[in-house]
Amino acid sequence: MSARPLAPQSTIDLATRAGPVLILVVIVLVFGLLTPSFLAAESLSNTAKQASFIGIAAVGMVFVLLTAGIDLSVGSVMYLAPLVAGLLMRDAGLGVAAALGVCVLTGAALGALNALFIVGLRVVPFVATLATLFLFRGFGAWLTQSRQLDFPDAIRGFGLASVLGVPVPILVFAAVAVAAHVVLRHTAFGRHIYAFGNDPAAAVKAGLPVRRVQAAVYVISGTLAALAGFVVISQIGRLDAGFGRGREFDVIAAAVLGGASLFGGIGGAGSAVIGALTIQAVKAGLVFAGINLYLQPLIQGAVILFAVFFDGLREARLRALRRRVIRPRGV
Amino acid sequence: MTIRTMLLGTAGAAFALALAAPAAQAATICFAFQDLETEFWVAGHQAITETLTEAGHTVIERNAQEDANRQLEQVRDCIAQGVDGIILIPQDGESATTIVAEAQDNDVPIAVFNRPPSDLSRGIVVVADNEEIARQAVEFVAAEALEQIPDRPIQSLILVGNLGDPNAVGRRDGFYAALEPHGDRFATPIEVATQWDAATALANLEAAVTANPQIDLIFTSSDFLFPTIRSVLEPRGMWVPRGEDGHILMAGLDGDATACQLIKDGYVDATGVQDLYFEAESAMNAILAAIEAGETQPNEVIEDPGFALTSENIGEREMDMWGCVLLAEGFLER
Predict the structure, then answer these.
(1) One fold for both B2-127+276-304 and B130-273+313-317+328-333?
(2) Domain spanning B2-127+276-304: which CATH class is it, in words?
(3) How close, in Å, is residue A162 to chain B by CA atoms?
(4) So what's the pLDDT on residue B11?
(5) Which phi-psi region, left, alpha or beta, contains residue A176 (left: φ > 0; alpha: ψ -120 to 50)?
(6) Domain residue spans in chain B?
(7) Whole-number average pLDDT of chain A
(8) Is the Cβ of A160 closer than 8 Å to some Cβ of chain B?
(9) Which of B61, B160, B206, B326 should one mutate to test binding to chain A, selecting the residue with the greatest count of A CBs within 10 A?
(10) pTM
(11) Nearest CA-CA partner of A244 in A228, A257, A224
């Protein structure tokens, strides 16, 4: 049996693994060529800032996708959790920090409810989170009677603040991504998630706490969706009844675009970061280039379609590569 | 109740009498709305449900939560329940056409409130002249811009709504109609997609302002986006009231309480006003008349001409705008 040439395989592997990053780089360069001001520091900073909203929630979604699950309720959590915090700010005089805490805890509680349905009652994740999508939004609409909620001005001091010139939303996004990366790559819990996502039956046989792992990822997803909602609302200062509606698709798209697989076991915190940046770079680039508004959704859809198609090829390649390892390197 | 008072104040005397007295025949009305995501829809919903209920009618409410297919099913459900009439706030123009046809094919009279079907030939359609109202509001700020900036092309920006919504298209057309007579005095406008979503508007407007820092005039297709505009402009020192250096001329459309407050504060210069109470009253009046007459397929277009409330005429016309009435009642403090 002759040995296969190493160099070509390594190049293909590298391209396969770095595909999402390459797509992002190409998109940024293309729009930079069309409108050079797109590459200015302020422009790139704004792109990262606006990507933080979807990106933070996408980090949570990656945890869920790694277990081959799905969380369709994130858009409703983005609405309901900041709403609860805002009502307490308005009616109980809560400060910004306390409101942030309430918002995150509410998100965790909503995620725990998803976990209860999925792990406790064994409802399929798609159905369970589809139900809570309506449940959470309906509860929020009932609380407000569909009226907007104006937050106290102090909240905008948080959302529009910068630390050493870096906008707070970017800092929050970075902190979340780094923490998620550490959890996924350097803890037993992270290894259990990958093991479960790759082969649930084998994970059970190996004695891993699969029910606890599966429940935890939905709590994480709810928590981060709530945080994402708070980050945007703290910039605008107002929560409208339609806020977050349909965002679950953006969040899932960002995670998949960045390299997470819908079938579990593949992806990482970097997937969410790259995916969210890619989606926002496309959106911002279209604005910079002054593309016709009717064409913008077509171009966005085409980019996502291409990336998902690429993901299919990439996943097949990665599954072939990792036959002897639980967690593939570099994803 | 104040909403009722306002309705009575804006209605004609004959209609006021009709509302004040219990209807000759109590009807069951299905009120199917797509959602209530802005002040306009909340106030419209309140005006319609309270007035019908107080007049002795039964109102079955159905919220489609921005899902056109769900709304069609909800309307079918209403028809199956044997309602006497339907008032509809549709998700978009195409689905409205389908739902109107569904109701009329089942001999149930239907009135469409504010968001018109693509086909205006069927059903009672109460609609604001979005193009004309937008044109009036933009004309005011355009005239101000021409006076203030005589020596260079004026850069304008429009926040465009969901282009599947005929209202958004009409408002965009009105914006361009107002600038068109001035030819080269206005540079090509910057268009920013919002999809009627604050977070989308925030991201796209931030990108647009970063790419084009010199903006002289902003028109938002809905007043509910003013807080989003503020959050983009304020950190850049571009959220400045009238009369101070750096003020960006600003106009909107809807006539909500926030816009009223911002015109008073000097940050906004004009807003196109839909006469919400006229529209609500017209929809109810027409559907009740059809039910009373036993007419199952009434077809009529009732147009709300609207007007522009500006920094110049707010003294005289403030209380003609529904948002200013709500503001006076403390709407923003609740």
Answers:
(1) yes
(2) alpha beta
(3) 11
(4) 38
(5) alpha
(6) 2-127+276-304, 130-273+313-317+328-333
(7) 89
(8) yes
(9) B206
(10) 0.82
(11) A228
| Mean pLDDT computed over A170-191 | 96
A171 interfacial to chain B (CB closer than 8 Å): no
Is some CB atom of chain A closer than 8 A to the CB atom of B37?
Answer: yes
pLDDT in tens, B88-135: 999 888 899 999 999 999 999 999 988 889 888 899 999 889 999 999
One-letter amino acid identity for B316?
A: E
- CB-hemisphere CA count at 13 Å for B250? 27
Q: What's the pLDDT at B179?
A: 96
Cβ B235–A145 below 8 Å, yes or no?
no
Contact between chains at B231 and A160 (C-beta distance less than 8 A) = yes
Q: Inspect the interface and report whether the beta carbons of B191 and A141 lie closer than 8 Å.
A: no
pLDDT for A309: 79
Q: For residues A218 and B320, which has the higher predicted lDDT (pLDDT)?
A: A218
In the three-class reduction of DSSP (H, G, I as helix; E, B as strand; rest coil), residue B168 is classed as helix
CATH architecture observed for domain A47-311:
Orthogonal Bundle (1.10)
Interface of A with B in 125-144 (CB under 8 A): 134, 137-138, 141
Contacts of B230 in chain A (CB under 8 A): 237
What CATH fold (topology level) applies to the domain B130-273+313-317+328-333?
A: Rossmann fold (3.40.50)
For chain A positions 233-272, those within 8 Å of chain B (CB to CB) are: 235-238, 240-245, 247
How do residues A113-129 score in pLDDT, each as one tens digit? 999 999 999 999 999 99
The ipTM estimated for the assembled molecules is 0.84
Confidence at B334, pLDDT banded by 50, 70, 90: low
In whole angstroms, what is the distance from residue B53 CA to residue B58 CA? 6
B246 by Cβ neighbours in 10 Å (0-12 / 13-18 / 19+) ranks as exposed
- Sequence length of chain A is 331
Burial of A175 (0-12, 13-18, 19+ CB in 10 A): exposed
